């Protein structure tokens, strides 16, 4: 598949990479102007902002490339095990700032641009972030590859180069509208396409089994159609360590551009039909978060990138004569949720059908080469594929899955003789009107380790999601609590706090986040607290400037900044937050509380709803309606304001997180696997109001009960309440404040007098309330009252905020990566 072999190098001088430009302002200016003239083909005087941005990006890249080539050469010479991170999503965020930080070029670039008469900030703002992910899962993958490069661990991140990432959100009459995200439209300076390294991926057709001379059965797959995968390489720089790993994203291309005969006959649409069909595979990211839809194109995407990646590793990354029996010494494929799980039967197919291995030996190899991370607790989020669909698209893989299942169920029968019910429960194939392949089971059976992403979720994963499997293989299960990269989410996003921290404890916290512990004594230092407060205030003002420019929002300078940003999902309970806001508004307009006596708050929401998720979109509509009404009501004298900037993304998060006073982490206990936003806020000195859920549990244990506002049912309590027959109406009847709040929300005053506009949500809460917002309302309100009291004592609040920073170094993704190395990859 490699077209155009690499050329032998005759000139020994050319064996290594050429030197990057000088690390000086002059060197930078020179390289920049070269890129502008020779790369973009324009003079500075005639260049557009986009030309300048592209040239700047390419210039910064020049400084990184030597490290990249050197790292690649080092990796090829050594025989270290490589982490093959398989993820359908990478929510990378902007690349320029990250590259400037990694290369320590920030100040040089700033000065160089000034010398050219340009403004670095303006050029930075030109970059459209690659939104190749939905939310937490995709952002986690981006944090992990950052940390692996910083730890100098060999890693190739494999994924899909979607032409359109997560949609751009706009609001039309307070309702969400989606616009395609054409992030590539102005050119993409960070990628290196390698069309000559194309890989062919087959689909459909049938299989044929024959018996060879030795009487062994051999199966061949005779596919019906195929596409090409073109790899695009992206650099993943470590933090100032010269190590640069690779992210390899695959783009689909038709094997045949068009049918010339049909074209000549005049049917142009028909002539390109198969091209369009094939290239749809990497056209757009599925915008469903946590609720997969089970569409055929989605399975095509999954197999497409996994097949490309396995092929790439085995044929193009390993040395040519590599003995595949030793494959597990050189690679571990980490499955980021079930999306890449089809890789397990794919590796079996490669080993058995293409390389001639016996089944049992191939199976032993395969199981050692995969490990599986589960990111959910919601039953509806566990991927299953109809047998009919999988068999039609990947007939050989379905046969392999059946054989894996047969062998596995024999093992179960042996371990539990006579337990037919258990055999049925544990089967990869779910029986029923529509037989389906349970991908989480396949991952658990075909991988060496299974991990959850926070302590509580890992426990519930063992006890509730995969109990039979954890009973059979207790040692296979482990927990690895998520983390976030301190480079992007503290050092880069919050330069003022970073400087303050570095002045106090030195600079090495950036790669050793537990050192933040050294800040603890400063919590009791009045001078430091004052500086810390000044940083928070400056970050708020930076955010307000941004929201004014970006969304035309005017926000008061001094108010508690209360933030809830994350995907819109009923289980995350943005509605509970909305009920709190409405209840405060009710306090004001009913005259129970005067505006002067209320702790002023600015509420910031950021949330995208999956386009087909009806209730989530109703919630967005109501947040906007309530926000507008409150913001326009002069009676409340600005005591409350609501901001819901459209299109929350990584770029906006970098401004929002450092500014927040209060972080809302209010999912129903037992539903949020981990959360990672919760970690970013705590690290930036926001206090959390949260339930006993996901990583909140671990955050609270670390920061201490006094520095965290806990409320709500615990997971066992919520389960019990449901078992006893949860009746939201009972809570409505017995709590007057709740009744007034819901009545006000349903009254129509927020929706132009039309009560029916709020009915879908209000009725849902009263009659169903699947995530028990009404049950937790009272406890939430009480916790918010404690928040107000705490906030009035600004010195004590700041002390808590500093302790949050000092005690959450555990949540660095560097630590997560060390845990994976210890418990999964090198275990
Ligand atoms: C999130 N999951 C978890 N899924 O909800 C969150 N799902 O608690 C956790 O912190 C995070 O993963 C990282 O572990 C997701 O983000 C998805 O985005 C998703 C996308 C497609 C299909 C299913």
UniProtKB/TrEMBL annotation:
It comes from Barrientosiimonas humi. It comes from the Bacteria. Transmembrane segments: none annotated. This is Alpha-1,4 glucan phosphorylase. The modification N6-(pyridoxal phosphate)lysine is found at residue 680. Pfam families: Phosphorylase. Its cofactor is pyridoxal 5'-phosphate. Keywords: Carbohydrate metabolism, Glycosyltransferase, Pyridoxal phosphate, Transferase. Its EC number is 2.4.1.1. GO terms for cellular component: cytoplasm.
